[in-house]
Design goal:
Blueprint lengths: L29 E7 H11 L4 E4 L6 H9 L4 E4 L3 H15 L3 E5 L3 H4 L2 H10 L3 E7 L15 H5 L5 E5 L5 H13 L5 E7 H5 L1 E6 L16 H13 L3 E5 L1 H5 L3 H11 L3 E3 L24 H9 L2 E5 L5 H4 L10 E6 L13 E4 L2 H13 L11 H13 L14 H12 L4 E4 L3 H9 L8 E2 L10 H11 L5 E6 H7 L2 H7 L5 E6 L4 H10 L21 H7 L3 E5 L5 H9 L6 E6 L34
Helix pairs in contact: 1-2, 1-7, 3-5, 3-18, 9-14, 11-14, 12-15, 16-17, 16-23
């Protein structure tokens, strides 16, 4: 281990790494040394075990980029847009479980991070955004490239900092990582003035964390666990309603034990796909607006919801007043603000999902207190019947144009469950959630809460950096792709060989679907002209090749497998696949916005019929 002597500025890269993972309390101790604020920033990142930063330099953050050049521990990836840096940090964090890091300059550089920061906040993704700020004496004067990024992001961060004193940089960075990774994960912003980065300071590690009032509760209260166990024993139609909190808490393994013990049917939300393997016989699929009939109906007919790390989002509940009307609610979440926010909980449990599930297993599995799976036998038969009667599916089109569902289904099947699938937002997102088989957690990444178009390509880039050994697919729409496709240049230059499947229907597909169903087929401003045979604007294959990627096009079902397999054989450059699909394919099932889940439609004008006496 390299040592640092008193009074001599260390070369970045020489800082000892802590024994704990990034985001946890720092463990390594470094002797006090004289450095600049910028050097202390880079050394702090090194001490926390950061290996990758996504960013773009600019005037206010420029002092930090000089010592970053000397760091042998931190890889900086130069993106083409700050939004790409933020989403890449999200993708990195989502698959790795570590804190993702992005960096930008002041003013427009910082404001370009607002969308990924908001996205991370909605989906509980741990990232730290580091931004440069104008000099402290210029703050508040409307100086060149000044923006109050701390004020702008205050509603969409767990916490944020404005640092004008160089000596405060290590503490702020250490606290930011701790806050981002603990409790309910989320984004933290650290805004540092240029003069603080340039000033001389004494670097001491680890700093003392000073977080009065920040005491996230991980261990659930025993009384609430016992009451939850009582409701589970009394229930006859229980459903496990599993949300993204189970993914974030790395609780999938213990959840599998709970399902095997209780034999209770389970649904996984859009953010929880993979928390329970799709192949599990008790898994009913995804609930909500585009969920499976079995999942939606089971929630509606249940007498107990065991809600783990979910927040009763409107896309799951539909009309809230009619959601699961006969069910009592056990609601477990690490964020107490989520409990009873939308639906009153009969048993509120504040705690980490992994701890909650473990304690429930202990409460239910004792010799004298064991739950009896036979009590739910009739219910399991009923939900299995719904699952068999109303499976997810699609009908090929009469004109033999390519079905987007088939394309995505084949990508999942050929690439396999060890791959990572990242989606943009829209129809392709829902089809990817429905038709790829997810057998493990963190194999599915998407923008759930904010619904950010342009998420897929940079997030896939970040995921591939975090797990280079895995195949990473960005399943994107022709609209989403055009918002952030410039990050293909980043991928080529930095040797990040993602695979991008563009589901090209020449439209803003989900908007067009709503215009078809609710606006009398008045297609106002949804035609993207990307798959017109005469003039493609743009031609995605040529665009891919211009960026240095491999470009492939497919418009026939007979060629789908060969096209995907050709992409799978290329591992040195990104591959862009332009799948020209049927323009008016729709996402089914569907619960129209604002209506009861009881009105779920399996096709246009067609509502499933079930026994209302159940």
């Amino acid at each position: 281990m390299t040592t640092v002597t008193e009074g001599k500025a260390p070369r970045p890269g020489s800082t000892p790494k802590p024994s704990g993972p990034p985001g946890q309390s720092p463990a390594a101790r470094v002797p006090a040394v004289q450095v600049t604020g910028a050097q202390s920033l880079v050394m702090s990142l090194e001490a926390l075990g950061v290996d990758t930063v996504f960013g773009i330099p600019g005037g206010a953050i420029l002092p930090a980029y000089d010592p970053l050049l000397d760091s042998t521990a931190v890889r900086h990836i130069l993106v083409r847009h700050e939004q790409g840096a933020g989403h890449a940090a999200e993708g990195y964090a989502s698959v790795s479980g570590k804190v993702g890091v992005c960096m930008a300059t002041s003013g427009p550089g910082a404001t370009n991070l607002v969308t990924p920061i908001a996205d991370a906040y909605m989906d509980s993704v741990p990232i730290v955004a580091i931004t440069g700020q104008v000099t402290s004496r210029s703050i508040g004067t409307d100086a060149f490239q000044e923006a109050d990024i701390r004020g702008i992001t205050m509603p969409i961060t767990k916490h944020n900092y404005l640092i004008t004193d160089a000596s405060a940089i290590p503490r702020a960075i250490a606290e930011a990582f701790h806050i981002a990774a603990t409790g309910r994960p989320g984004p933290v912003l650290v805004d540092i003035s240029k003069d603080a980065l340039q000033a001389e300071t004494t670097f001491v590690w680890p700093p003392k964390l000073d977080l009065p009032g920040y005491r996230p509760v991980a261990k659930p209260h025993g009384k609430q666990i016992r009451e939850a166990a009582r409701l589970i024993r009394e229930a006859r139609r229980p459903v496990l309603y599993v949300g993204g909190g189970v993914i974030r808490s790395r609780a999938s393994e213990v959840l599998a034990q709970f399902v095997d013990l209780t034999q209770i049917p389970v649904v996984t939300t859009l953010m929880a796909r993979g928390a329970v393997p799709d192949s599990h016989p008790l898994h009913l699929g995804m609930p909500g607006m585009h969920g499976s009939v079995a999942a939606v109906t089971a929630l509606q007919k249940s007498d107990l919801l065991i809600t783990l790390g979910a927040r009763f989002d409107d896309r799951v509940t539909g009309q809230l007043s009619t959601f699961a009307p006969g069910a009592k609610v056990i609601h477990a979440d690490i964020d107490p603000a989520e409990i009873s926010k939308n639906r009153l909980a009969d048993v509120p449990i504040v705690g980490d999902c992994k701890e909650v599930i473990s304690d429930l297993i202990a409460a239910l599995g004792g010799e004298n207190e064991a739950v009896r799976p036979a009590d739910y036998e009739d219910w399991r038969v009923q939900v299995a019947q719904w699952k068999a009667t109303f499976p997810l599916g699609y009908t090929p089109h009469d004109d033999e144009t390519l079905s987007p569902q088939y394309v995505i289904e084949r990508i999942g099947a050929i690439s396999g469950p060890e791959s990572v699938f990242v989606a943009g937002v829209g129809q392709h997102q829902m089809w990817a959630a429905q038709f790829v088989q997810y057998e493990r957690p963190n194999s599915w990444i998407n923008s759930g809460g904010l619904g950010t178009m342009g998420f897929a390509v940079p997030a896939a880039m970040g995921a591939k950096v975090a797990q280079p050994e895995r195949t990473v697919w960005a399943i994107d729409g022709d609209g989403c792709f055009q918002m952030t496709n410039q990050e293909l240049a980043t991928c080529v230059i930095n040797k990040i060989p993602i695979k991008v499947a563009i589901i090209n229907n020449s439209s803003l597909g989900m908007v067009r679907q709503w215009q078809t169903l609710f606006y009398n087929e008045r297609y106002s401003n949804t035609d993207l002209h990307t798959s017109h045979q005469q003039v493609r604007v743009p031609d995605f294959v040529k665009l891919a090749e211009a960026y240095g990627c491999m470009g492939l096009r497919c418009d026939s079902a007979a060629d789908v497998d060969a096209t995907i397999k050709a992409a799978m054989e290329v591992n040195d450059v990104p591959v862009v696949l332009d799948f020209v699909v049927h323009r008016d394919a729709m996402v089914w099932p569907m619960v129209p916005s604002g209506v009861s889940n009881d009105q779920i439609q399996i096709a246009r004008g067609l509502t499933p019929v079930w026994d209302r006496e159940d």
